Amino acid sequence: MEYVLRTENLTKIYKKQTVVNNVSLCVGKGDIYGFVGKNGAGKTTFIRMILGLAKPDSGSFSLMPGESIYSARRKTGSLVEGPALYTNMTARENLRLLCTISGENTDQADDLLKLVGLDDTGKKKAGDFSLGMKQRLGIAMAMIGDPEFLILDEPINGLDPTGIAEIRELLLRLNRERGKTIFISSHILGELEKIATRYGIISRGKLVEELTAKELAEKCAAETIIRTDSPVKAADILRRFLSTDKVEVTSSNTLIISVRVDNIGRITNELFNNDIAVTGVNTSDSGAERYFIKKMEEE
Fold it and tell me: 20 to 30 A from 135, CA-CA: which of 12, 141, 165, 256?
């Protein structure tokens, strides 16, 4: 796999606390890599090390193999902890100023505004923008110089559903139409599931799992939730009946079957034949969120 970022045992310690602990991951060229973890899991510190904003205490990383670190970072755009905007300036003025500071052509500002859907903001000051508009302007700023790799730290945090959808569609467009590799950190699991091609799950500074979207889909192919007054007995029966151990009792009246069930009626009939009453059945195509949450509890 051709990669744009690879880390080996990357570690950062603040005041004797290990914030990022021996993280080894790989971001392939063309990926939308979802870096998943709770707030405080170490996501932002990891990103800051890759961008040169924090120095690792141990471990190493390679950014765009074959490039010098200076060249690689010139080809990397980023948005970390919210965009740094001049609130008394328009979106266009913000972009043109950053182009000048970065030594880039200011003519690209208008194209970037159109790309992120802010070309109609005119003389409106950035300080009067909604949070979603500010995030889109931040992504436009990260796109100055047409970078190959985008690193975005919680770009949908705090947005309303409309704002989240706008950012999601923008990122998909950048990946599919412009070929950008994107590394996006978030704790909003449902949104990452809609766009990511690969995941890294971090918990308390440790990378607990790395997997592709296909592998996640296989792990969370389907769920059937059954409510009954005898969940333990029902689970034992269904494990034998379905020849699987993926039947879990989750509460005093609920169990979950974590494999695809093509005929729900066969299951309810089997339970009925064993004198177990079923009070409710619900099916879901994906248990990804539950899977992520379980993994984020690991150390």
Answer: 12
- Please give the distance of CA 125 from its chain centroid, rounded to a whole number: 30
Instruction: Decide: 89 and 97 in contact? Cβ < 8 Å.
Output: yes
**Beta partners for residue 247, in sequence order:** 257
In this predicted structure, the answer to whether residue 16 has a pLDDT above a threshold of 70 is yes
Other beta carbons within 10 angstroms of residue 231's beta carbon come to: 21
CA distance 150 to 182: 5
pLDDT score for 224: 87
Query: In this structure, which topology does domain 3-212 adopt according to CATH?
Result: Rossmann fold (3.40.50)
Q: Give the pLDDT of residue 263.
A: 84
Helix (H) / strand (E) element for 14: namely: strand 3-14
Token pair of 145, please?
Answer: 């110089």
Angle at 26 between CA 20 and CA 31, to 5 degrees: 120
For the record, the structure tokens of 226 come out as: 């059954």
Into which CATH architecture does domain 220-296 fall? 2-Layer Sandwich (3.30)
d(CA 26, CA 33): 9
Determine which helix (DSSP H) or strand (DSSP E) holds 193, and give its type and residue range.
Answer: helix 189-195
Residue matched to tokens 């765009």: 64
Q: What is the pLDDT of residue 187?
A: 83
Pairing relation of β-strands 149-153 and 181-186?
Answer: parallel
Residues 6+ apart with CB under 8 A from 120: none
Query: Beta partners for 257?
Result: 224, 247
Alpha carbon 270 to chain centroid, angstroms = 40
Domain positions in the chain = 3-212, 220-296
C-alpha radius of gyration, the chain, whole number: 23
Looking at the chain, list the stretches that DSSP marks H as alpha helix, in order from N- to C-terminal side.
Answer: 43-50, 69-74, 91-102, 108-115, 131-142, 161-178, 189-195, 213-219, 231-242, 264-273, 288-296
The Cα 77–Cα 64 span in angstroms is 13
Distance CA 139, CA 21 (A): 29
